[in-house]
Amino acid sequence: MAPVSATPGRAEASTMARALREAVLAGIIAFGLFVLYVGLKTDQNISNELILVPRPGLLAIFVGLAMVARFLGVLYIQPAMKRRRDAKSAAADLELQPSYVKRNFSTIAIIALVLYPPLMVALFGTQGSLKWVDNFGIQILIYVMLAWGLNIVVGLAGLLDLGYVAFYAVGAYSYALLSTHLGLSFWVLLPMAGILAALWGMILGFPVLRLRGDYLAIVTLAFGEIIRLVLINWTEVTQGTFGISGIAKASIFGIYSFDVGAPNNFAKVFGLPMSAAYYKIFLFYVILALALLTAFVTIRLRRMPVGRAWEALREDEIACRSLGINTVTTKLTAFATGAMFGGFAGSFFAARQGFVSPESFVFLESAVILAIVVLGGMGSLVGIAVAAVVMVGGTEMLRELTFLKAIFGPDFTPELYRMLLFGLAMIVVMVLKPRGFVGSREPSAFLHARKSVSSSFTKEGHG
Amino acid sequence: MTALLQVKAVETYYGNIRALAGVDVEVQKGEIVCLIGANGAGKSTLMMTICGSPQARTGQILFEGRDITRMPTHEIARLRIAQSPEGRRIFPRMTVYENLQMGASLDNLKYFNEDVEKMFALFPRLKERQSQRGGTLSGGEQQMLSIARALMARPKLLLLDEPSLGLAPLIVKGIFEAIRKLNETEGLTVFLVEQNAFAALKLSHRAYVMVNGQVTMSGGGRELLANPEVRAAYLEGGRH
């Protein structure tokens, strides 16, 4: 913090001096970090030799950005945050009535989501809405659903699962294989995929019953990899890395189809011009319904004995047992329930893509889903949804940021910096809100008034 | 009449180390029985062995005449043996109210409303703190919560492991008073492990003294309190 000084003028001057000092320091660190990664690039020349291409300009931009950001941070953002903290602690004693938007956030969000596709069609036309409904809407909602599913395992039951994507894969391949071989429809296979994934959740659950924390994380990580490697190598069934293509589309409960040739094609029946957008809009509502189902089940379960047992299990396993809770079945139900929603999301994913391959189910996916749960604040559904929008929407948004080319030069492809920005975002969130976006936990039981519990007592970063 | 709890020649091991070397203990219905002894004597191990974690290697534990030696912990708890374990082990991130709910999960909250009022009457502090997180309570309040949570299961036998650990004497007095009250009014059977021998012996009908995994002495609470050997070993060293 800035040294206390007698006159405000001197305090300002000293802050300025400190800001300059720290900016230079940040510049040096940024230079050290980026000099090899950004400052040098390996290229092949005409005779196939590897040559180093120095990129001093780009390096200078990176260092410059770091310096400017640090300078502004020390000079403006830090004092502003301090003021906010002071104001907050002064106002903490007052009973604050949350604003209308805050109180009805979920209702407003759901209505907004229902209205989202027609709005996009109105704004960008049928064809133009594709990108917004599919790339943003559906993509984000899939991750919201996956994160809510994983939340049951990690956020509620406290079982750190690094292989969640395995259940997503099981769901996707269940649908892909059963629909191509047996010709069953999406609506029959959706629950089936869920059940199969739940079964695999139990299969994973049994051997790891005695494990907790880091040990559990490693075994689940291995499980995720095993599933992926089986998918790659069991070529007779899964066709290995080629994947399975031509997976049937979902239909509106068999009444209308989205297959171009079908007589009951949705667009044909209603005399609309052919477009992929209708299918995407339909899928948007399907995944929205599935995600809301996940949230609904989670909220209900939390108030039921099994949900309470999950939360108690997260806190203290020995105490649970001494209260007569069968920790074996409790853990297995947590794994199975979480996996089931992963399976639902997986079969939806297969129906949406029309193609599945093991490449979609790498460890990175598990990490992203877990990151969303952690950033959202373990256990908070709203926080997780917000985190999914920021994380997934943010990375999708990178594709749109063509103006960055003006700063970094025409060769700059923002998508390549996705992981860098992802990491940065995580660090920023964890520094500012160490317990996630929504750190407070609503008690599931109360005598007179519902009183949310301050975030200071909810789980912080550690597993 | 057979005793409510019978521990017969129980030996418990941690790996190769024998923690209990043939322990015999009996608790009759309606009694407060305490077990005193120095650190590492095996008091808590006996308590945990009764709960089935770890399980006794040899010997037998009978509850209401039924062999519970090889039962898993949660099934033992379902026979209405409630435990306030060492270190309290409340659920720190759940509210006081939710902690009490967890205690009542055996009956699926059937008697919850009735019982929770009883607990609040017994420990008025818990009522004040009901929507607070367990982890934010003081040590004494946590101990009260731990006992109240165990009582929510409507136990036939309450096992208390060092309820006075780390608490101010005044609070210990309050907690022991509550235990006595429960025993007198409801006929609750209590098996108590304590290092605070003076207070525990005063409270108990009968007591056992444990040394190196073996019971070396037993008798009425007052009787042991007057015993010169016990006084020398556990009481004269300063009243805790």
Automatic annotation (TrEMBL), chain A:
Pfam families: BPD_transp_2 (PF02653), DUF3382 (PF11862). The chain crosses the membrane at residues 20-38, 58-77, 105-124, 136-154, 159-178, 184-203, 215-234, 278-299, 332-350, 362-395, 415-432. One of its GO terms (molecular function) is branched-chain amino acid transmembrane transporter activity. Residues 19-116 form the High-affinity branched-chain amino acid transport system permease LivHM N-terminal domain. It is a multi-pass membrane protein. One of its GO terms (cellular component) is plasma membrane. Its main location: membrane. It is found in: Cell membrane. The keyword Endoplasmic reticulum does not apply. This is Branched-chain amino acid ABC transporter permease. Keywords: Cell membrane, Membrane, Transmembrane, Transmembrane helix.
Automatic annotation (TrEMBL), chain B:
GO terms for molecular function: ATP binding; ATP hydrolysis activity; branched-chain amino acid transmembrane transporter activity. Keywords: Amino-acid transport, ATP-binding, Nucleotide-binding, Transport. Transmembrane segments: none annotated. Pfam families: ABC_tran. Residues 5-237 form the ABC transporter domain. One of its GO terms (biological process) is L-amino acid transport. Gene3D superfamilies: P-loop containing nucleotide triphosphate hydrolases. CDD domains: ABC_TM1139_LivF_branched. InterPro entries: AAA+_ATPase, ABC_branched_ATPase_LivF/BraG, ABC_transporter-like_ATP-bd, ABC_transporter-like_CS, BCAA_Transport_ATP-bd_LivF, P-loop_NTPase. The keyword Transport applies. It comes from the Bacteria. Belongs to the ABC transporter superfamily. This is ABC transporter ATP-binding protein. It comes from Xaviernesmea rhizosphaerae.
